[in-house]
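WARN retry 2 of 3 for item q-0093 after timeout on previous attempt; input resubmitted unchanged.
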Amino acid sequence: MKLKLLALMAMLLPVAVMAEDTLNTGDTAWMLVATAFVMLMTPAGLALFYGGMTRSKNVLNTMGMSLIAFAVGTLVWVIAGYSIAFGAGDFFGTGKIMLDGITDKSLTGTIPELLFVAFQGTFAAIAVAIASGSMIERVKFSTFTIFVGLWILAVYAPVTHWAWGGGETLNFGEMDFAGGTVVHINAGVAGFVVAMLLGKRKGYGTTAMKPFSPVLSVLGATLLWFGWFGFNAGSEVAADGVAGNAFLITNVAAALGVIGWLIAEQIVYKKATLIGGASGAVAGLVAITPASGSAGIGGALIIGLVGGILGFLAVAKLKKLVNVDDSLDAFWIHGLVGIWGSIATAIFIAPYLMADDYNMGAQLLSQLKAIGLTVVYSAIMTAIVYFISAALTGGGRVDEETEFKGLDEETHGEKGFNL
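OK item q-0093 returned
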C-alpha cells in the first residue's frame, strides 16, 4: 500500500511542478498593472510629495532627484542590481548580469521573469528616492546621481537578496511582505546618514523653512496611496486572496495613519494641518507594508493608527532632540515607522493567515535581527557610497552661494514658476 502511495505521489509531483511553472494570464495582467502603479509612485507621487514640502527655490531640484532616481535606478537594476538581488548565491547573487539567461519564456512563479524584473526595479528606484528627502537643498545633483547607482548596487540589492532573493546566511526568517526592512528602514537609515555627513542647511533652526506648496504635497501623498496598492498587493506576485487582503488593509492602515497623525497634531498644536494629514497617510502606509501579507483588519487598524501617531511624535519631538537636519523627515517617517511596522508584523497576524505552529516570540526575535542587520549594514555602506560619490564630484555639498540662491536656478537654470 505504501509503495502504491509513493508511486502515486511520484506521478503527481511533476504535474504539480509543471502547474507551478505555468504562465497564468490573470496573475500576469495584475502584475503589469501593479508594476505601473509602483512606477507612478516615484517620478510623480514622491516627487510631488517632497516637492511641495521643500522651499520654492529648490522645488525643481527636489522633484528632479526623484526623477533621476527612477532613471538611473532602472539602468543599474537591469545591468547588475537584479543579478545581485535575485541571482544565485548566499551573500550576493550572481549570474544574471544584463539579465543573462532570462527570456520571454522564463517564469517567476506564474508570471514572466522579465515582468518580475520590472516590478522589483520600481522598488529599488523608490527606495533611493525616499532617501533623497533627507538631503535636499544642499546636496549636489551630480553627487546624488552617482549615489543612486552605487547605493542600489552596494546597499539595496544585497539587503534585498538576504530578505527575498535566496541569501540564507543573513536571512533570519523575518516576515517582510512588501519591503519594511528592504525599502523603508534601509532608505530611512541611508537618508539619515547622508544628512549627518552633509551637515545642516544654512539657517536650520533659526530661519523659517516653510513648505512651498501643501497642495502639491497632498496630491503627491494621494498618488503614493494609490501606487501603494501595487506596492503591497503586487508583492504577492499573484491575483489571489492574499493580494486582496493586502489591498484592503493597505487602504485601512493609510486611513488610520491620517487619523492618528491629525489627532496627535490637534492635541499638541491645536490645529490639524493638511501637510500633517498627508504625512500621516504615508506613515500608515509605511507601517503596514511588511505586514500587508499577514495582518487582518484589526491589525491594520492598530498598525496604521500607531504609525500615524508615532510619525507625528518623531517629527515634532524626537527630531528636535536628535538635532540632525533630516530635511523632509525620511528617517522618522520611513525608518522609525518602518521599524514599528516590522515589529508589529510579528504581533498582528490574521487567524486565517497564521500557521498552526506560529511562535510569536521566535518571530519577534527574527524581526529584530533583520532590523539590526539592515540598520548597521545600511549605515556603514551608505557612508562609504556617499564618500565615493562626493569624491567623484569634488565634494558632496553645494557652495554657499548656490544654497542661498537656490538649487533650481543655480543647478538647473530653471524656476518652479516663472511669475
